[in-house]
Amino acid sequence: MVDALDSKSSVRKNMRVRFPPSAPKITNSKAHFYGGLFCLYIGQNSVYWRQNDVKKSQNITMKKKLIVFFILLCFRISFSTTIIAYQRNNIIHIGADSKHTVWNSGKNIDTFSKTKIHIINNFCFLLQGNWADSTINFETFITDQLKENSFGLTEHLKKIIDWYYSNFSSYYKVIKSQNSYYYQKIFKEKLVCKILICGIENKNPHLYCLKFIINNDGILDHDIMNFSNEKAYMYYLGQTEAIEQYLQENNWETETNPIDLINNLINLQIQTTPEFVRKPINIIKLDSKGYEWIQ
Fold first, then answer.
1. What is the pLDDT of residues 61-100, one digit of tens each?
2. pTM for the whole thing?
3. Phi/psi zone of residue 215: left (φ > 0), alpha (ψ -120 to 50 degrees), beta?
4. pLDDT attached to residue 72
5. Are strands 108-113 and 118-120 parallel, antiparallel or unpaired?
6. Among 107, 110, 148, 162, which is least packed by CB within 10 angstroms?
7. Looking at residue 254, what is its pLDDT?
8. Is the dihedral of CA 210, 277, 279, 244 positive or negative?
């Protein structure tokens, strides 16, 4: 558990998931005879018991293989998105494209359009990376978690971190041990998931980025970036090659219209990687009064 979220530094956590009856005494004259029969019985049954042990061991091994196969079959990676967060004068604008691309076990590609901006009560979140398989859905959990009005943003973050460790820690180790090629191909940058989450605390908007990463052994770790004390910032994640190129050549701080800037940057990325990023572009505004859908 994280005890506190330091507004001046990242909080890091490294978690490893560990998870014959006695024979009757023979005293009569037929002791040797019965003793011989008893030894024969024990000998025959010991063979039977050993065979059963081997079968049980084989069954356990087969079950483990089936579990690994099932995980690899159902493991889904959402690896396409472009998200931009822009803050100035205590006002946050967040924009995102709408294309979802899902890599199913490294073989099948599914694409569909869906808004990536989720507003629940006084909170908002967006996801990038690995966040679901056929049985576990991080998006659903965060949505349900943020419906709890009794928690502040810091408490929600703690719950989200604990849930992700509990549900995904073993996945990466299993995939690495059973399919190293797939592991290296998908997680070559060791980033597995990012969550951009914001809300209103003390009548001011606050924005955090929670990043989950894995090391070379498949051990899960995380960082938290807190942008609350920044006077002006721009943060972007996902497919961002064209955005980074533009910002290297232009000063975004001279831009006076954040909505136009976000639209222009995401459109640049759409032109560069249309297979991963596409319209419509959604934008919201967050200030001390709350959220407003811009487009």
1. 454 444 444 444 444 555 578 999 999 888 999 999 998 7
2. 0.71
3. beta
4. 44
5. unpaired
6. 107
7. 84
8. positive
Are the C-beta atoms of 243 and 265 separated by less than 8 Å? yes
Residue 216 contacts residue 149 (beta carbons within 8 Å): no
Closest to 87 (Cα-Cα) out of 293, 244, 295, 288: 288
188: pLDDT strictly greater than 90: no
pLDDT tens digits for 219-249? 889 999 998 777 788 999 989 999 999 999 9
Question: What secondary structure does DSSP assign to 159-177, as a single string?
Answer: HHHHHHHHHHHHHHHHHHH
Domain boundaries, the chain: 77-293
Paired residues of 276 in beta bridges: none
Contact between 96 and 237 (Cβ < 8 Å): no
Instruction: Tell me the C-alpha distance between 186 and 118, whole Å.
Output: 26
**CA–CA separation, 198 and 230 (whole Å):** 14
Quick one: 292 exposed, middle or buried, by C-beta within 10 A (0-12, 13-18, 19+)? exposed
Fold entry, domain 77-293: Glutamine Phosphoribosylpyrophosphate, subunit 1, domain 1 (3.60.20)
Nearest Cα to Cα of residue 129 among 194, 71, 224: 194
Beta bridge partners of residue 232, listed in sequence order: 88
Strand 220-226 with 13-14, pairing: antiparallel
Strand ranges, E, within 239-289: 282-287
